[in-house]
């Protein structure tokens, strides 16, 4: 008993960054697990939007049938971006007013050591995340063509947790710098190395994704997208999403490191999640338009996937 108690003394509680990372790992592992379930269950949990509208849908089993009853509209993606923008605003307000929620998280994080992302990088990463949330919100209202396709309510819930988690991930490793600035300690004003490259990658993904969404919105539902990156990739809007989070992971890198580990784990989740959906999309297009139409296209990542 004593040895168990002394072992417990050495177990450190997780920092907020580790808690954020744990969600990404758990969610990624769950998606990989879902991929080996029977096809009807996998589809009920993972497929959404256009992929559920066509194709050779077989009669689902009992559990898949129940999950099918718990669907919400695909257009509820809108809620992700309302949440994302609201969270960005909330954290800005918390920073400016030394709010108790941010202070609690920041103090929990610096327990692990004072190694930190520079303040300028924290502001840039926060700003880029806000830009992404705002553009997606704008697109949800003014660009995307309304449809009646569904998605699983579990998918919708996981998405909400993801955007909440990511709103914290972009600044949590900068807790030391945030605390210093609250305590009046001046931060460096020099442009950190590689930051312009990170911003460039983010903007390339940001602009490209908007072009992809405009193209999808201009299509008759459901036809084969064939312009720009769609000529070579089945889901270039997902490629763009990966570029966006790669840019963010580089922009928010702590001093002496190339990437921000927490955002990188978020990118891992994005890649696993969207990679699964890109596979379903390619299969659905092949069934609907003929395999030859998509055979030569990458699903999401050129030369790799
Ligand atoms: N960070 C993350 O983890 C994450 C997760 C999911 C998505 N996202 C991002 O959110 C954005 C939207 O993703 P999504 O999965 O919703 O994309 P999607 O399934 O391709 O759908 C996007 C829009 O295009 C329409 N559409 C799709 N294929 C079409 C076709 N062949 N013909 C006509 N219209 C078509 C859809 O219509 P319907 O509404 O009728 O289906 C929907 O309005 C992407 O940029 C993605 O990167 C991010």
DSSP helix count?
12
Number of strands: 2
- Termini separation: 51 Å
Integer tally of domains: 1
Note the beta-strand portion.
Answer: under 5%
Q: Strand sequence of the main sheet, in spatial order?
A: 1-2
- Which of globular, elongated, flat, extended, rod-shaped describes the shape? globular
Q: Measured on Cα atoms, how large is the radius of gyration?
A: 21 Å
Oligomer: single chain
- Mean pLDDT across residues: 90
H-E order = HHHHEHHHEHHHHH
Heterogens: NADP nicotinamide-adenine-dinucleotide phosphate
Secondary-structure content class: mainly alpha
Low-confidence blocks of residues: none
Sheet having the most strands = 2 strands, antiparallel
Determine the fraction of residues in helical runs and give it as a percent range: 55-70%
Family: Belongs to the steroid 5-alpha reductase family. Polyprenal reductase subfamily.
Pathway: Protein modification; protein glycosylation
GO biological process, one term: dolichol-linked oligosaccharide biosynthetic process
Organism: Hapsidospora chrysogenum (strain ATCC 11550 / CBS 779.69 / DSM 880 / IAM 14645 / JCM 23072 / IMI 49137)
How would you explain this protein's 3D organization?
The protein is mostly helical. It has one domain. It is about 65% helix and about 0% strand. It contains twelve helices and two strands. A two-stranded antiparallel sheet has the order 1-2. Helix 3 packs parallel to helix 4 and helix 11 (about 235-250) runs antiparallel to helix 12. The longest helix has 29 residues, at about 260-290. It is globular and about 60 Å long. The mean pLDDT is about 90. Bound molecules: NADP nicotinamide-adenine-dinucleotide phosphate (NAP). NADP nicotinamide-adenine-dinucleotide phosphate (NAP) binds near residues 147, 149, 162, 238 and 270. Belongs to the steroid 5-alpha reductase family. Polyprenal reductase subfamily. Its main location: membrane. It is found in: Endomembrane system; Endoplasmic reticulum membrane. GO terms for molecular function: 3-oxo-5-alpha-steroid 4-dehydrogenase activity; polyprenal reductase activity; polyprenol reductase activity. This is Polyprenal reductase.
């Amino acid at each position: 008993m004593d040895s168990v108690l002394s072992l417990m003394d050495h177990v450190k509680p997780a920092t907020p960054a580790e808690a954020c990372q744990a969600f990404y790992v758990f969610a990624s592992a769950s998606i990989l697990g879902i991929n080996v379930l029977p096809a009807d269950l996998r589809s009920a949990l993972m497929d959404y939007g256009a992929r559920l509208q066509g194709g050779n849908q077989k009669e689902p089993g009992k559990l898949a049938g129940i999950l099918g009853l718990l669907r919400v509209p695909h257009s509820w993606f809108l809620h992700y971006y309302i949440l994302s923008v609201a969270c960005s605003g909330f954290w800005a307000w918390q920073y400016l007013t030394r709010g108790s929620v941010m202070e609690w998280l920041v103090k929990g994080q610096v327990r692990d050591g004072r190694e930190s992302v520079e303040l300028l990088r924290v502001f840039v990463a926060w700003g880029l995340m806000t830009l992404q949330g705002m553009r997606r919100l704008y697109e949800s209202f003014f660009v995307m063509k309304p449809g009646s396709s569904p998605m699983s309510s579990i998918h919708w819930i996981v998405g909400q947790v993801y955007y909440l988690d990511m709103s914290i991930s972009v600044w949590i490793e900068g807790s030391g710098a945030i605390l210093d600035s609250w305590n009046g300690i001046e931060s460096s004003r020099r442009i950190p190395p590689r930051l312009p490259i990170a911003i460039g990658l983010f903007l390339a993904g940001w602009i490209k994704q908007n072009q992809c969404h405009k193209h999808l919105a201009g299509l008759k539902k459901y036809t084969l997208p064939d312009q720009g990156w769609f000529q070579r990739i089945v889901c270039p809007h997902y490629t763009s999403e990966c570029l966006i989070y790669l840019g963010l992971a580089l922009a928010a890198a702590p001093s002496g490191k190339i990437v921000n580990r927490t955002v990188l784990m978020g990118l891992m989740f994005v890649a696993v999640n969207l990679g699964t959906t890109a596979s379903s999309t390619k299969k659905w297009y092949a069934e609907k338009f003929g395999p030859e139409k998509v055979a030569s296209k990458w699903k999401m990542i050129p030369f790799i996937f």
